[in-house]
Specification:
Blueprint: E1 19-23, E2 33-43, E3 46-49, H1 59-71, E4 81-85, E5 100-107, H2 116-130, E6 133-138, H3 145-156, E7 170-176, H4 182-203, H5 211-224, E8 228-232, H6 234-239, H7 243-249, E9 257-263, E10 279-284, E11 286-290, H8 310-324, E12 330-340, E13 352-354, E14 360-362, H9 370-383, E15 388-393, H10 397-403, E16 409-412, H11 414-426, E17 432-433, H12 438-442, E18 451-452, H13 461-470, E19 478-483, E20 489-490, E21 501-502, H14 507-520
Parallel strand pairs: 1-7, 2-5, 2-6, 6-7, 10-12, 10-15, 11-12, 14-18, 15-19, 16-17
Antiparallel strand pairs: 2-3, 4-5, 8-9, 9-12, 13-14, 16-19, 20-21
The chain binds ligand BES, manganese (II) ion and zinc ion (ZN).
EC number: 3.4.11.1, 3.4.11.10
Subcellular location: Cytoplasm
Family: Belongs to the peptidase M17 family.
């Protein structure tokens, strides 16, 4: 199926992001300000305002603001939001200060303990608190302008789906800094757009985002970014031996796909021998809907399974961002896409599938489908002999049992796993390292195939899945598996810069990792 035109496959709906700007003073702010955001802290003697070079307020205005805030009981504690009328910041007639309608004081707690992500989360909360505005000017930049911009942008993302009336949100966010920096704004825009793209894909319902449509959307977005794309259809997948993807996809009327997208900046080459750039493989689970198949899931909450392509969405969004950021690495994304449905043509418990590369799996539970399609994709990705393999998937409910809803489980080669964990923490996606204990590997041996897709025991399900995937990774490839079953999709209330539904995790971790690997350069070849 290659005749799909771009017009036929488009997301029915996308979320909004604000326009971002950095300004060094009132002179650069045009028109009136709907909300002026100021940070406040909880000091030993109560509320404190932030001093600092980016401050545009006169000392008289600061005193006035402090008086008002304390008089309404604001304390500056973390998460506190205080609204005040803009009038209290009346200015001299000759000041360049634009008219301010509202002031929002955002509590940041103890200034000594403030992290980058605290700034991001505060900016995100501020954006959500403001909700709807044409122009927001924010001085949350005091410690980290990038974090303030990104938090405001991600918090302002609003997804209205196919409601007749779309939610209104923030038009422009202007963050104050000592100097303007168009590069910084450009960088934050690229990252925010990547997160928004992943969120849009994950938020899309499965009747819009089925395998063919998803593959064409990835093709269009990648082509537009100047990347090379290859899409294998169900016939090509069968001919080339992708038994895991074909097996999982065979129960659906919407046949499966495998999409490969390559970013090769100058200095990279097709053969790993002659390239002087690190080569990175990305793999992401693309199950557009997971009913469980013949091992059918219960009906309650099954609707959340539109998010079961969250790994693949993060991978393609991060790859496009990496290309826009001109990361010095050759990166190839391998994205298996299938819909897991029960039907007369679906795989059954007990079926044996032969994966790309030849390993076989006895399928004892058709709901453990993610690992079946990832096995093929990982084997294919390793054929290119990458230096690193970063794979991510909404793989197991056990991830949430072990770590909760907001903490990705990170498994794989020990040193690389720990490096990815540190970066995941630094961007605020907060992944945590998980072990692959040997005895859990024994539990996926089969009597009639190389592997079975589930263990008999309930325990350690996240690590069991990690072990299963490890069998498809070639020796010498440093790899990580990030289980994002919980973190990819927020079924609860919004918080910080995280909306309801799709979160965009782990887009920013992947971007941070490929940037870090590119900075390190091609790793030394392991001794023979
Ligand atoms: N897509 C699910 C995992 C999942 C569950 C993601 C809940 C997000 C929220 C995956 O395909 C699955 O069904 N896993 C099974 C594996 C089991 C059968 C070994 C699970 O976790 O129950
Ligand atoms: Mn499943
Ligand atoms: Zn699944």
């Amino acid at each position: 199926m290659t005749e799909g035109t771009s017009a036929r496959f488009q997301l029915a709906s996308t979320g909004t992001l604000p326009t971002l700007q950095v300004a060094s003073g009132w002179q650069q702010v045009e028109g009136k300000i709907d909300t002026f955001v100021v940070p406040v802290f909880e000091g030993e003697n109560g509320l404190e305002l932030a001093g600092g070079s980016a401050s545009v307020l006169t000392s008289q205005q600061e005193i006035e603001l402090w008086k008002w805030l304390t008089s309404v009981g604001a304390q500056g504690s973390a998460g506190e939001m205080t609204d005040l009328p803009g009038e209290i910041l009346r200015s001299d007639d000759d000041s360049a200060q634009p008219e301010i309608t509202k002031i929002l004081a955002v509590g940041l707690g103890d200034v000594e303990e403030l992290s980058d992500d605290d700034v991001r989360q505060a900016a995100g909360s501020a954006s959500r608190h403001i909700g709807k505005a044409d122009t927001v000017v924010s001085s949350l930049s005091i410690f980290n302008t990038e974090a303030a911009l990104l938090g405001h942008a991600l918090g302002a993302y609003a997804y209205s789906g196919q409601k007749s009336e779309a939610k209104q949100t923030i038009g422009t966010v202007i963050v104050l800094d000592t100097e303007e920096s168009s590069e910084l704004v450009e960088r934050v825009n690229i990252i925010a757009e990547a997160v928004a793209f992943a969120r849009d894909l994950v938020n899309a319902p499965a009747n819009d985002l089925y395998p063919q449509a998803y593959a064409e959307i990835i093709r269009d977005a990648s082509t537009e970014a100047g990347l090379e794309v290859e899409v294998l259809d169900e016939n090509e997948l069968r001919e080339q031996g992708f038994g895991g993807i074909v097996g999982v996809g065979q129960g659906s009327q919407n046949p499966p796909r495998l999409v490969r997208v390559t970013y090769s900046p100058a200095g990279s080459s097709k053969t790993s021998e002659s390239s002087d750039l690190p080569e990175i493989a990305l793999v992401g689970k693309g199950v557009t809907f997971d009913t469980g198949g013949i091992s059918l899931k219960p009906g309650a909450k099954m609707w959340d399974m539109i998010m079961d392509m969250g790994g693949s969405a993060a991978v393609i969004a991060a790859l496009i961002a990496a290309s826009k950021l001109q990361v010095k690495a050759k990166i190839t994304a391998t994205i298996p896409i299938a819909e897991n449905m029960p039907s007369a043509t679906a795989i059954r418990p007990g079926d044996i599938l032969r994966h790309y590369g030849g390993l076989t799996t006895e399928v004892l539970n058709t709901d453990a489908e993610g690992r079946l399609i990832l096995a093929d994709a990982i084997a294919r990705a390793c054929e290119d002999e990458p230096d690193y393999l970063i794979e991510t998937a909404t793989l197991t409910g056990a991830q949430m049992v072990a770590l909760g809803n907001r903490t990705p489980g990170i498994m794989g080669s020990a040193a690389f796993r720990d490096k990815v964990t540190v970066l995941s923490q630094s961007v605020g996606e907060n992944g945590w390292p998980m072990p692959l204990p040997r005895e859990l590997d024994d539990a996926i041996k089969s009597d009639v195939a190389d592997l079975r897709n589930i263990s008999e025991s309930r325990w350690g399900g996240m690590s069991v899945a990690g072990h299963y995937l490890s069998h498809f990774v070639s020796d010498g490839v440093q790899w990580v598996h990030m289980d994002i079953a919980g973190p990819a999709y927020n079924t609860g209330a919004p918080y910080g810069y995280t909306p309801k539904r799709a979160t965009g995790v782990p887009v920013r971790t992947i971007i941070a990792v490929v940037e870090a690997l590119a900075k390190e350069g091609k790793p030394a070849a392991p001794e023979a």
